[in-house]
Amino acid sequence: MHYAGVEFDSGEEFDSSWGRGETIQFPLRGLIQGWQDGIPGMKAGGRRELVIPPHLAYGPAGAGHFLSGKSLIFIIDLVAVG
Where are the bilayer-spanning segments (predicted)? Predict the structure, then answer.
């Protein structure tokens, strides 16, 4: 999978596997709820945009993560299903 994450309000990119030049691989259960809800049904070679509100991402402001309280946008390319 390749992905890029952007803060909804500022449009600032906060993470990108493309920027690191390598895909990522992970178990779906270990991801934020917005990804757990948004990725199922994707097929290899597909692209999806997820717009995720704070309660499905890193929780309300002050929850301890630098993205807490923020709506997030992810562009996800599913390279392969393992």
Answer: none
Domains defined along the chain, listed by start: 2-63+72-77 (3.10.50.40)
**46-53 long-range contacts, Cβ below 8 Å, gap at least 24?**
46/77, 46/78, 47/75, 47/76, 47/77, 47/78, 48/75, 48/76, 48/78, 49/73, 49/74, 49/75, 49/76, 50/74, 50/76, 51/8
Reading the block at residue 12, the tokens are 């600032």
Q: What are the pLDDT tens digits along the chain (82 aa)?
A: 999 999 999 999 999 999 999 999 888 888 999 999 999 999 999 999 999 999 999 999 999 999 999 999 999 999 988 7
pTM, rounded to two decimals: 0.91
Spatial distance between the Cα atoms of 67 and 47, rounded to a whole number of angstroms: 23
